C-alpha cells in the first residue's frame, strides 16, 4: 500500500547518503532501543545535563540543524558513555529493568522492583542517585515511596 503523498516511497529504510561536514568529529550512534534508553534516562539526564542544556540553548539560538551538530555530538557521546558505565557494573540489573519496561508497555510504575535493584546497584557502583527533575525536595521521590509490586 502506498501512503498518500509518498507515491515514490517504497517502504524500505532510507539513509541520507550525504556525509557530515568534514570539520565535525565522527560519533557513533547510541545504538539502543527505547526500553534501555528509558531505563537509563534519568541517569543520562543527570550526567549529561550540561551538554543537553548547551544543545537546547544552541537550538534556541539558531534553528538551522547544521548549526548545532557539534553540541549534538557531545550529547550523543555522553549518553554512550553513561550506557557503557551502566553496562560495565550493573548489566544484570539494567537488563532486568529494561526487559520489564519492554514487556510492560514502558510503564515505569509496573517495574519498580527491577528499578530499585538498578538504582541500588548504580548507587553502590558509582554513587549515582536517581532524582526526578521538578520533584518536591521535602518528600520522598515517587520511585522510593510507591509500593513495590512487580
Describe it for me?
By secondary structure, this protein is mainly alpha-helical. It has a domain at 34-127. The protein is 54% helix and 0% strand. It has helices at residues 34-47, 49-61, 69-103, 112-126, 142-145. Helix 1 (34-47) packs across helix 3 (69-103). The longest helix is centred in the middle third of the chain and has 35 residues, at 69-103. The radius of gyration is 19 Å and the shape is globular. One of its GO terms (biological process) is mitochondrial electron transport, NADH to ubiquinone. It is found in: Mitochondrion inner membrane. One of its GO terms (cellular component) is mitochondrial inner membrane.
Helix-and-strand structural type:
mainly alpha
Q: What oligomeric state do these chains adopt?
A: single chain
Give the proportion of residues in helices: 40-55%
Cα distance spanning the termini:
41 Å
Instruction: Give the overall shape, derived from the CA principal axes.
Output: globular
- Topology as H/E string? HHHHH
Strand segment count: 0
- Helix count equals 5
What percentage of the residues does DSSP assign to strands (E)? under 5%
Mean pLDDT: 86
Low-confidence stretches: none
Largest sheet: none
Whole-number radius of gyration? 19 Å
Main location: mitochondrion
Family: Belongs to the complex I NDUFA8 subunit family.
Keywords: Disulfide bond, Electron transport, Membrane, Mitochondrion, Mitochondrion inner membrane, Repeat, Respiratory chain, Transport
Protein name: NADH-ubiquinone oxidoreductase
